[in-house]
Amino acid sequence: MASSLTPLGLAAIALLVERPMHPYEMYQLLLERRDDWLVKVRAGSLYHTVERLHRDGLVTVVGTDRAGNRPERTTYAMTPEGRTALRETVTEMLRVPVNEYPRFPLALSEAHNLPLDTVLELLTERRDALAAEVAALDTVVSTAKERHVHEAYWFVADYLRTRQASELAWIDALLERLRTKDLPWPHLP
């Protein structure tokens, strides 16, 4: 692969498929479209990412403007090399599963170090947060369907909803097993 993009780099350069834009506009769109469910979005990180894309020749400056007393804004467009990097990165990410080492499985593997009451409380909080995320994703999916948005633009929300709902069901079953003592808890020293 010629140039592998970071997740934030991929999200940023993918926005430039739509049209040239400046990093602040990219940031606003990422938040508006709830891409923060897919990638960690911070304004400072995004600006650095766009600078790196520019340095690597994947985007180019197509203009600068200033509105009133605001700072100057640089507008970027994707280069042909950027389009190639976008396609190669998406291809590789779709093709090859990668263990991304999420934090939750590690916490589960070490939960026995906490008292049962604490684990029940924490898992219940997580369960409630997941239920809220599933409900929010249900809204995204139903709104997209109502607006007749092409499914290729939003099926990731269905994937995220399915994944979150699966974790929610697993946690509900675990909580039940812990509460009924079907899964006995070790005594802490």
Q: Can you summarize this structure?
A:
The chain is mostly helical and 189 residues long.
Q: In words, what does this structure look like?
A:
The protein has helices at residues 7-15, 23-32, 43-55, 80-95, 103-110, 116-146, 155-179, and strands spanning 59-65, 73-78. The termini are far apart. Helix content is 59%, strand content 7%. Strand 1 and strand 2 form a beta hairpin. The relative contact order is 0.10. Helix 1 packs across helix 3 (43-55), helix 2 crosses helix 3 and helix 6 (116-146) runs antiparallel to helix 7. It has 189 residues and is mainly alpha-helical. The protein is elongated. The model has no long low-confidence stretch (mean pLDDT 91). The protein has two domains: 7-95, Arc Repressor Mutant, subunit A (Orthogonal Bundle), CATH 1.10.10.10; 103-179. It is built from seven helices and two strands; from the N terminus they run αααββαααα.
Strand order of the largest sheet: 1-2
Taking the sheet with the most strands, its summary is: 2 strands, antiparallel
The total of beta strands comes to 2
Fold-level CATH name of the largest domain? Arc Repressor Mutant, subunit A
Oligomeric form of this entry?
A: single chain
Runs in which pLDDT lies below 50 for 5 or more consecutive residues are none
The CATH superfamily title of the largest domain: Winged helix-like DNA-binding domain superfamily/Winged helix DNA-binding domain
How many DSSP H or I helices? 7
Second rung of CATH, namely the architecture of the largest domain: Orthogonal Bundle
- Total domain modules: 2
From the N-terminal CA to the C-terminal CA, the straight-line distance is 52 Å
Overall residue-averaged pLDDT value? 91
